[in-house]
Every structure is written in structure tokens, then in C-alpha cells.
Amino acid sequence: MHILDDLAQRDLIQQTTDDEGLRKHLEDNVVTLYCGFDPTADSLHIGHLLPVLMLKRFQKAGHRPIALIGGGTGMIGDPSGRSTERSLNSAEVVKGYSDSIKKQLASILFFDDSENGAVARNNHEWLSTLTIIDFLRDVGKHFSINYMLAKDSVESRLENGISFTEFTYMILQSYDFMNLYEKENCTLQIGGSDQWGNITAGMELIRRTRSEQGEEEAEVYGLTVPLITKSDGTKFGKTAGGAVWLDPEKTTPYEFYQFWINTDDRDVIRFVKYFTFLEMEEINELEKELESAPEKRVAHRRLAEEMTKLVHGEEALQQAEKITEALFSGDLKRLNAAEMEQGFKDVPSTTMEEKDIALVDLLVNAGISPSKRQAREDIKNGAVYINGERNTEISYQMQETDRVEDRFTIIRRGKKKYYLIRYK
């Protein structure tokens, strides 16, 4: 199947600059394409996943992706989709972010020396050597103020104000496309639909510079993907705890798995189309299953499995599933210390120095029960669980077997209140 037909089936095409031209271009060539990622943090989050996976889809179809890390543009800030200006980071911070993001991209794309092996580039390489005189004379002259003001990314910011710094972002990104076109024969830029203005501006710069030099018109294209919205009106990629990161230190594989498995029924098939590489036949079967037996949550589990395995690997997926099952069944002793720490990352926790302590004292010292009297009542009434097992012995002394790898104990009070006890 043609890559554009596959993308269309998945509703992944928002706009193209020339659908028929691009279709033929992809049929006749191993096309080099790129997508940019500005390093605004030390990790990508799942809002970045769709364009990363678009690069992967083109690579699987035989084309050559460039993951462009915006080490230069990241020091300026993209005004697209924002109502206020970004905070500017130092060159050292941006470089650290860039290095981290490059490693994450390499875990999803195939970086090798084959014809369609992905490559990573950093626009700091060429933007940092561009003088202001060269920039204004050779690049800026091709952009009229009226042309730039008409772009959505600029027009939407005029009311709240936009600095000259952010105003020039479009020109810098356009220069990226021209540079990659000249040095890498890159003829296609992809991005979110909020990047449409920047993409078309880059195409225009390439055409103008070639015309100025008396060369034939360049064959370059742009394609955007939809900006993801959720049916309940909340922002995609956000939870009560904040952004869902690809870095397992920021968002554990278990939390990552839970994000996907808790997808709204109204969104799950759309997200399976967007984010997974499952064939459409299987996706259609998942949709039928959702309609006939939504309580089984087959599509949700498939989505969570595919995404966790893709980003974190098979071992992390198995660990996330093990934690999920243990929490569902209440059999917490199945978990090792690392799994316990993941599964109970967000519950109240207390660090204890004394290990062989009376259960009553532990409940009070950890703030689980407000008093010894209440602690005794809780234990007597069967409301206290140690690592998933009910304990009704009021005089119980905590033992070594209650500590998982001598590091953690999980106390549950009542039906849903969990507490993580850490030991020094």
C-alpha cells in the first residue's frame, strides 16, 4: 500500500501542499524527509510521539528520515500554538536537552548506514555560524512583513504581543529546510498542523533562492498531521500529575502503560490508528470488539501494550502488566522492590529508621492512623493490610518478611488508601 493511502486510512493527514505531486515523488524516489524537535526539556513527551512515529512510518515504507533537533531554534522559541512567549534557556541547558532527546529518538527510529537509515541533525550546527548580516541580507530579504503577519503562528500572537525574537522563528525554521534541502537532498518536511505556516515558508524560501540563482524550481513538499484532541475536552498527554514523558525516570513504564489503558472509549480506536503499527484489519476487529463488549477493554489493553513496548521495550511492558495485575488482585508480595516503587510512586510515603517496630506504632508514626487508639481499632476491624495481606493482630511486631528487599512495605488502610513505607 502507498504510504499516503496508509496515512489516510489512519486519518493522519491534515494537509499536504500537493497531494498528487507528493504521491508521485514518493513512488519514484527514496525521499529524504525531516521533522524538527525543539529541546524545551530534557525529554520528549507523548505529545511528540505522533511526528516521531510519522518519521518511522516513512522509514518503514523505504524513505530516509532526518530527526532535526533544534539546538539553535530551541534557544529562540516557537510561537506556534502559544499565547505567551517561552522562557529562554542557556546554551548549556539547551545542549544537554538536545543530547537527551537524540538518545530517545534513537530508541524509536533505526539509525544505521542503510539507504533509508535515519539520521539526527542539530540546527545549532549551521545557525550558530550564521552572522546577523548574512541572515538579514541572504535570508530575511525573501520574507515580506505582510507575508509573515498573515501566518497563523504570528497572527494569533499579535493581540498578546510577540517579540522580534519569536517573530524571526519562522525565518530560522525556513532556513533549516533550505539547508537540509541543499546538503541532504531533503524534499519533504512534516509536522503538526500548527507548523503549516513554517513549513510553507521554508518551501517558499527554497524556491526564491533557487530562482535568484537561475536554477530550476525545486520539488519540495509539506505534510502535516492533526493536532490531537480528546473527546472529553481535556488536553492530550496531560494527567493530574502533569505531562506523560518518554523518559522512564520522569514517567515510569507502569504510569505510561496506565495512561494508555485508561484512554476514553471514544478515543481508543482513533489512538490505535494514530500511534500503533497494527494493520487496519486488526484495528477494525478491535473496533467491533469495543462495540460488542466494551467492558473487556481489549482495544485499550492492545494500545497500552503496543505503546509501552515501542517506547520502553518488552521487559518494561511485562513489568507494567505484572504491577497492574498485582494491584488488581491485591497480591502485592508478587512485586519486587523496583516494581513496588513504580506502582506506588504517587501514594503517600514515609521513611522509617526503625524496622522492628510495633504495627500500631508504625501506623501512627507514618500518619496512617491519627492515634494509637484508632490504630488498634483499625487493626481489630480488619482495615489494615501489610503488602496486600490483612492483619488483625493488635500486638503485631513488624518483621523482616514484611519488608520487600529490606526497602519497602505497603500498608493499606480500608479499601483504597495505600501508604508506602521506605526504610533507611
Description:
This protein has 424 residues and is of the alpha/beta class. Helix content is 44%, strand content 13%. The protein has 19 helices and 13 strands. It has helices at residues 3-9, 19-28, 49-60, 91-106, 124-127, 132-139, 145-149, 152-155, 164-167, 169-184, 196-212, 253-261, 268-275, 280-292, 298-312, 314-329, 337-343, 359-365, 372-380, and strands at residues 15-16, 32-37, 64-69, 119-122, 186-192, 221-225, 238-239, 242-243, 349-352, 384-386, 389-390, 408-413, 417-423. The strands form three sheets. A six-stranded mixed beta sheet has the order 1-6-5-2-3-4, with helices on both faces. It has a five-stranded mixed beta sheet with strand order 9-13-12-10-11, covered by helices on one side. Strand 5, helix 11 (196-212) and strand 6 (221-225) form a beta-alpha-beta unit. The longest helix has 17 residues, at 196-212. It is elongated. The N and C termini lie far apart (58 Å). The model has no long low-confidence stretch (mean pLDDT 91).
What distinguishing features does this structure have?
six-stranded mixed β-sheet, 19 helices, elongated, five-stranded mixed β-sheet, alpha/beta, 44% helix, 424 residues
Short description:
The chain is an alpha/beta fold and 424 residues long. It has helices spanning 3-9, 19-28, 49-60, 91-106, 124-127, 132-139, 145-149, 152-155, 164-167, 169-184, 196-212, 253-261, 268-275, 280-292, 298-312, 314-329, 337-343, 359-365, 372-380; strands spanning 15-16, 32-37, 64-69, 119-122, 186-192, 221-225, 238-239, 242-243, 349-352, 384-386, 389-390, 408-413, 417-423. The chain has a 6-stranded mixed sheet, sandwiched between helices. A 5-stranded mixed sheet has the order 9-13-12-10-11, with helices on one face.
